[in-house]
Specification:
Elements lengths: L4 E3 L2 E5 L5 H13 L2 H6 L4 H8 L2 H6 L2 E3 L6 H13 L3 H19 L5 E2 L14 H5 L1 H10 L10 E2 L6
Antiparallel strand pairs: 1-2, 2-3, 4-5
Length: 161
Amino acid sequence: MPEVLHLGGRLYRPAEETTFAQDAAFMALVYETKVHDEIAAGGDIIAAVLRSGRVPEFLACSLVPLDGGWTADGAKDTAAHFAALTDRADKATLMTALSVVITGFFGAGGPSATNSPSASTAVSPESPADRAAPHRRRRVAATGARSSPPLPTTTGAAPVP
């Protein structure tokens, strides 16, 4: 994904470091839209986000105006701007960004159930919050702390150092 996205006359950049409020807003969307249910059932993350009908809001949690940082009010404006775009190139850029943003937030493509045809070896289960916030994995691994019940055993995730 380019470092700067030109969308509908505005410039955006992927958030390199997110704030706690930004992560919380993203996770709120995950739970409000039941995307976490599909992830827990081994479903496709991108398809779940698309079915949620809230793609502009998901993107607005991760793409920020080039000239500023993330705020809740700014994210509402950004989501409205994304939703109103009609240019084919802008829409294609957003769909590419969606794939990068969502898989980046949830990890390398998200979990797959051990009974999935593409499953290989099982790794330790993580809570949705642990998977959604990779930086939490180190704390969970070090302390064993969990904020929610674990998901079914998953595969395909890279080991956490």
